[in-house]
Specification:
Helix content is 50%, strand content 11%. The protein is built from 34 helices and 17 strands. The strands form 4 sheets. It has a 7-stranded parallel beta sheet with strand order 3-4-2-5-6-1-7, sandwiched between helices. Strands 8-13-12-9-11-10 form a 6-stranded parallel beta sheet, with helices on both faces. Strands 14-17 form a two-stranded antiparallel ribbon. Helix 18 crosses helix 19 and helix 24 (524-547) crosses helix 28.
């Protein structure tokens, strides 16, 4: 046994470091005592050293199981460069080379051997392993990326399940399991599957304070944003995409725009991947574009940015992938481009899973990354709470903390929500609680008798999104728990009762759409301006095509925006708008003013046929479903369904207003519209009272507009 007091000397001798990072020395001491270990340490935290140094200080060889060929080569290259005997055996090697390396191992020239789990459990290698143990000895098994053994892990690999045979076949050899990400459920699964014996468990903080986190809306301008960011960055970066095709297309596009970028995915040959990886590691290129599914397995310390151009499937994989930035502890940037279309793609992939439990788990994991992307609180707080780590928030290094939203005291609403969780015996999820609070009428509520609860309907004054925002805030702040078995059942905890007893306030950030309600109800003029802007853009495109010029040459977008907001009614008013000179006024004035006048006279949606989404709503309506039932079927809000129906009425589709609004209410709404001469829903409701819903007003107004055509 090596003398423990000389560990620092060994660290300097083999790796050149003067001191250990936090937690490393204790782990190494326990490894030297042949303890089983579970080590959870963030990317860049120094996990590898925790099995590499003990391997050098103990007799025999340490076998490292790794799922990534690239990671094996990277670590072996680093060790070899330090003069340490290390090698790997995997599918990239010819049989002659494998034989040569096995000979070196049996001749005691190797201290660390890297293998894939498939090779480790093969019949041929098992025979070799028996021979190795007898001739040289195996000091330990190190299971890297140990989360792969758990079906609850983000990168579950069935072949990892067979690793437990090591414990059964070689019970005397200690096992160390290492990973950067593991929830409590995954931790328990790793210990159980590997049959670890009273393992020493080391969990470092998941917080990476040098990383800046941001989420941006993904739209048609996102590529230009991406390109601009890369050009501003001096260091290297990784961009993750969902599919091989996306990787290839984005890499080519970046190349065409002068960025040194290469693709990296499983569709490339082994040699192409190796060449591209080496180019990235050696700084021959700036950007590696990679699939989120394949995994890079590189240890480049100076990655300055990691962009997820497509949505990651879950928080664990996002944490690992974004964690490849800033391993040198220098400031680095991590950005997710979020779009609902990516959510649909991932849902489709999940639906292809044959195992229903795997589907359920994957959907819960997807919901969590959506919550992260849509979250209004500190990004770190949301991430760390997922891994069971409490964080006070206000990290000053994420978009939400640097650009904080309005906050409000929602203690009263929190009490209502938590009370409802208690009254259903903590057996239901978020959406069911929200349905009860909002007084929804559906079979699930009536079947369970929840329409009889005192909390039924007490939250009608808040929207579904507002209640969702509160629920997520309660979870992120640790004021409520949620099961992690795929069913997402809400549970009360000690802090929940502190809220009940007025010992703790609940302060939450308000979502952007909710801020509109604070500052004022829906601005009708802005909505009409958006519709007019679409028409003006179509007109501009027509003029540009006719003259064989680019649309922005006619008028730039900011000028069109002013047209849509100010709505000039004559050439004089048109000429006074910024972006219009005398030549443009004489050239385009008449046609644009005519279009604006026509819109103001019509005040209707410029849509000739229903969209696909509107047609689905129409079909459900024709089946006899009401607004609430259609909303539940489609997973949309009642307001969205009412909006669909009002548009369908305007398009002269077979929607009967009497199915939604009583004749008495119709008469009163029409009377008020005639009296006020104002189509603003807010104004109408202020004069009619709260007995009239915005949905009813919207539908009647649409019916009247159709009649007046």
């Amino acid at each position: 046994m090596y003398q423990l007091h000389s560990l620092e000397q060994s660290l300097k001798q083999f790796f050149g470091y003067d001191k250990f990072r936090e937690g490393q020395k204790e782990i190494i001491e326990q490894a030297l005592q042949n303890r089983d270990l579970l080590i959870i340490m963030p990317t860049g935290g120094g996990k590898s050293l925790c099995f590499q140094l003990p391997a050098l200080l103990k007799s025999g060889i340490t076998i490292v199981i790794s799922p990534l060929i690239a990671l094996m080569q990277d670590q072996v290259d680093t060790l070899t460069d330090n003069g340490i005997g290390a090698t790997f055996i995997n599918s990239t090697l010819e049989p002659e080379e494998i034989y040569r390396r096995e000979s070196a191992i049996l001749n005691n020239k190797i201290k660390l051997l890297y293998l894939a789990p498939e090779r480790l459990m093969s019949e041929r290698f098992t025979s070799f392993l028996d021979n190795l143990i007898n001739q040289v000895g195996v000091s330990a098994f190190a299971i890297d990326e140990a989360h792969c053994i758990s079906e609850w892990g983000h990168d579950f690999r069935p072949e990892y399940r067979r690793i437990k045979e090591l414990r059964q076949r070689y019970p005397q050899i200690p096992i160390s399991a290492l990973t950067a990400t593991a929830t409590k459920r995954v931790q328990h699964d790793i210990i159980t599957q590997l049959q670890l014996r009273e393992p020493a468990i080391h969990i470092s903080s998941f917080n990476r304070p040098n990383l800046y986190y941001e989420v941006r809306e993904k739209n048609r301008h996102s590529y230009n944003q991406l390109l601009k960011e890369i050009r501003l960055e001096k260091g290297a970066g990784i961009i993750y995409c969902m599919s091989r095709k996306s990787v290839d297309n984005l890499a080519l596009r970046l190349q065409n725009d002068g960025i040194k970028a290469l693709p990296y995915h499983a569709g490339l040959s082994d040699q192409e991947r190796i060449n591209n990886q080496n180019s990235f590691i050696r700084d021959d290129i700036q950007v590696m574009v990679a699939t989120v599914a394949f995994g890079m397995g590189i240890n480049k310390p100076d990655v300055r940015f990691v962009f997820h151009y497509d949505l990651p499937k879950n928080i664990e994989s996002y944490y690992q992938e974004s964690g490849r930035a800033g391993r040198d502890s220098e400031p680095s940037k991590c950005v997710v481009f979020f779009s609902l279309s990516d959510v649909s793609k991932i849902n489709f992939i999940i639906s292809q899973k044959e195992n229903q439990d795997e589907q359920r788990i994957a959907k819960q994991q997807l919901e969590k990354i959506i919550e992260y992307s849509e979250g209004t609180e500190c990004r770190r707080k949301i991430q760390l709470s997922y891994f069971g780590e409490r964080f006070k928030g206000n990290c000053a290094n994420c978009d939400n903390c640097l650009n904080p939203l309005i906050t409000e005291d929602w203690t009263t609403e929190a009490k209502k929500f938590l009370s409802c969780v208690a009254r259903v015996n903590q057996r239901f999820g978020m959406m069911h609680i929200i349905d009860i609070l909002r007084g929804a009428k559906n079979q699930k509520i009536e079947k369970n008798g929840h329409h009889l609860l005192s909390t039924y309907g007490i939250g009608k004054d808040k929207s579904i999104d507002q209640w969702k925002n509160l629920s997520r805030a309660l979870l992120h702040q640790g004021l409520m728990n949620e099961t992690t078995d795929g069913y997402r059942i809400l549970k009360l905890n000690k802090l929940s009762w502190e809220v009940f007893r007025d010992e703790r306030s609940v302060i939450i950030p308000i979502k952007k759409q909710d801020i509109k309600q604070i500052l004022g109800e829906y601005n009708e003029r802005q909505a009409e301006a958006a519709l007019l802007l679409d028409r003006l853009k179509q007109l501009r495109k027509y003029i540009a095509d006719a003259n064989n010029i680019a649309p922005y040459v006619v008028f730039q977008d900011n000028t069109l925006n002013l047209f849509a907001l100010l709505r000039p009614q004559n050439i004089k008013e048109f000429s006074e708008i910024s972006g219009v000179n005398s030549h443009k006024a004489s050239q385009y004035g008449d046609i644009f003013v005519s279009e604006i006048r026509a819109f103001c006279q019509q005040q209707e949606l410029p849509i000739a046929l229903p969209s696909d989404s509107q047609m689905v709503t129409l079909q459900f309506y024709q089946q006899g479903l009401n607004i609430a039932e259609i909303a539940e079927k489609r997973g949309l809000t009642m307001g969205t369904i009412a909006y669909h129906l009002s548009e369908l009425i305007l398009m002269n589709q077979p929607v009967n207003i009497n199915d939604f609004v009583s004749e008495t209410k119709q008469k009163e709404i029409l009377k008020m519209i005639n009296k006020l001469g104002d189509y603003s829903l807010k104004t109408l409701r202020e004069n009619l009272g709260e007995d009239y819903s915005y949905d009813e007003l919207k539908l009647v107004r649409a019916w009247r507009q159709k009649q007046n055509r």
